[in-house]
Amino acid sequence: MCKIGQDTIADPFAAISAIPAGTSTIRDMTDIRFEVPDFVPELCTGCSQCWVQCPDAAIPGVVNTVEQILDTAIAAAADGRPLDRMKQVSKSLAAESRKILKGVPFSTFGNVVSDAYKSLVEKLNWDPERRRALDEEFGAVYSVLAEFPLAKTVPFFDVPERTEKGSGGLLSITVNPEACKGCNICVDVCPENALVTVRQDDEIVNRLRRNWRVWERLPDTPDRYLNVSDLEEGIGVLPTLLLKKGIYRSMVGGDGACMGCGEKTAVHLVVSAIEALMQPRVEAFVQELDGLIGDLDAQARELLAADADLDLAALLEGDRVDVPLDEEKRIRIKRYTDTLATLRDLRWRYVEGPSGQGRANTAITNATGCSSVWGSTFPYNPYPYPWVNHLFQDAPSIAIGVFEGNMRKMANGFTAVRRAKLLRDGTYDPEEHEPFFTRFDWRDFSDDEFGLCPPILSVGGDGAMFDIGFQNLSRLLASGKPIRVIVLDTQVYSNTGGQACTSGFTGQVSDMAAYGKAHHGKEETRKEISLLGIAHRGAFVLQTSQALPSHLIGGVLKALQTRRPALINIYTPCPVEHGLADDWSLHAAKFALESRAFPFLTYDPDAGPSFSDCLDLDGNPDVEETWPKYELEYVDDEGAAQSLEVPLTVADWAATEGRFKKHFRPTPADFPEDELLPFHEYVFAPAEDREGRTPFIQVIDAEKHLERLLVSREIVELAEDRLHFWSQLKEIAGLAVSPAGHDLVEEELAAELEQKLEALREEYEAKLTRLRAAYPPLIARRLAEGLLKANGNSTVTELLARAEAAPDLEPIRFDESALSGLRAAPSVAPATSSAATAAPAATAEAAPAAAPQEVAVAEEEEAEEEGLVLEPYIDTALCTSCDECININKKMFAYDENKQAYIKDPRAGTFRELVLAAEKCTARIIHPGTPLNPKEKNLDKWLKRAEPFS
User: How many helices (H) and strands (E) are present in the chain, helices listed first?
Assistant: First the structure.
């Protein structure tokens, strides 16, 4: 073995090609790395990026109270000594430390506890001898805490303290020296430079090992520091689930994966999500078994002693008493004892079992490929689960067999529990219940029973699932069996040197798709396994990656809830075959997502009757845009800092990867400017505008100067293909209308509008006809009557006034129906005499407008009905720069000059996005306010979820 300098001996496991679970933990990776991350606690914000992105589960985070940390340090420093005096004052020292943590800027916990000790000993006022003994013990404890890194952060100290005094915890980020491979991903993803790379030497290795021993002694993270409000629904800051030791260490280090392996990160997050879901369920079930065992045992004992003669027992000598037992009672007692034996055995299997570790929470069938190689490089197995590897194409078929066998075993256990409950309640009838138990299988499980079944995973790469094994995968998806298929989509056959495959992209250069004179890489378009999964109609489909860990974890949690097959396709960057740096996998995944090369999607057949109900594109940035935009910062020729807003296109993503490198070349200095066209314009330009033009993208060199790269035709075709797929997804999801649908709707609306216009024209023509017929005779009659009674010197106005006032003048009556509807109609001013134009004025007088005061009151009442509108806001000063809100909507949320989030435009998104951002915020500082759109879909649900943040 590596640790003891010996080779492994032949044993029964090796003879049958079996590797015990979790054996890679015996491997020490110290000698394979040259650098390690070093934690700078005063800069840490608790954003979770480091512990989530680490492929090797080598940098766990744990949150503990000050009291727990001091107790652990005392235990670590004891080294066989009792340290009784430190134990005596540890609670008081913790209280003093909390005072300092709240009132003084934080640097290191070693400084805090040193100052707290000085304050404490002054208050103790002990005699010199006791003080000297206490100082000696504290010195040993301080030596532990001085080098053990602990961070005071907003999410885990300040936020809990605001809710409950004394509840804040300190975060430890500790490197496991045996598992870390030195890939530096954790350093690269840290937004605050709280992790830095240091050259490894003996002193650093020894310090890492000392700190790791302390970490192993720390208690597990208390539940109150997990900011998850609903685990079943995946609501909350899901990366905090990995603060639990048993969840984070769901895989162990020491395996044979390459440094920075995207597959490892993906699988680690998947099994961590499974552990997070299964552990509390199993714990609750064991408690249920304990209660059931206790109840049945008490009932059996009561039944056994029910007919005992107590008076006779008191008179008999000796320590035995005969208890009468008739045949019926004997059968009942036998039923109780058999049931109890079954329940106790079931409990033992959950808690201990043959391995001593209890029942496994999942099982894996792995297709031959890169994941099977690093997962079973003898004798190092990183999985603490049942794991089997078979032929390249057979993982789904093996999974079906494992599923059936496991479900039969689960059915036996649930039968025993159901029978025990009936027996306890006195309702058990063998003739009635046993026939049902005989045919009882997984389809009859209750929701709680189904939730206890360990998920069966079928894991494989794109070669196994897209290509040679696709028929087996399709059969599984059509079977209806709730098996979870994990596709590690690297777009190349990583274990055989990076060969071409159907999951690869157009233009991608690999074995059997080389770049030469005749062919420039892969020519076919990529097969979309997600669409093929959706085509089965009855399967849950998730497409995701480490670009958004919360999307991956949340999607897996949803997939585990469904009683359907689940296809989980995860983009897993391969540094070796993609031509990436060891620390680049997160960036590669983000670029692929944002450029639409690998869009996220969730398809849930139970979400509704239509495809648009079932397909969800959450997680994709700026869904309304062709490509998201970003600021390219550079230095101009005068050395001044500049920025340029450009879209993140497929070409920008491809330019960062070695597999597309040959499709880009620097722009020659003498290249004609009028022959260049920005790539994002070229893609949408018609053929005549492309003629004689070459597409280019903007990049920056090592000195941050702006340069241009010329882009090949193949990358243009790749962009067109990716945008076509993106457009199709939006149409299926109901977020966009197809051209044919647009034309059809436009024609229907135009026809409907024309009909309405024609009806309005006919209505107004009829009204005008009645108007012309009624008003001229009326006006003429009034004028004539007035003139008859007037003298010739009067003006028309005087004549009309006198006619109106004449008592003996009979008013002319006319048909009111001739004017029906005219008062409600808009003013019409036909080109007639001035007398005719006076009619509308008279009509207006007949229906006077509401008084200004009445209008003001009406508006005020309307405002009261609408209620107060509270704008959303962020406590920016407390932001941890975790990127969660930015990833949801870059137009709504933005970073300020200190890289702390604020709400840039509350109207650039939905209330739903505000609530999701608040739920994912590690610092819980986003307040959604009130909805700005009262007609938003499912608003009641989102208002309910927004309540904790109001």
Answer: 35, 24
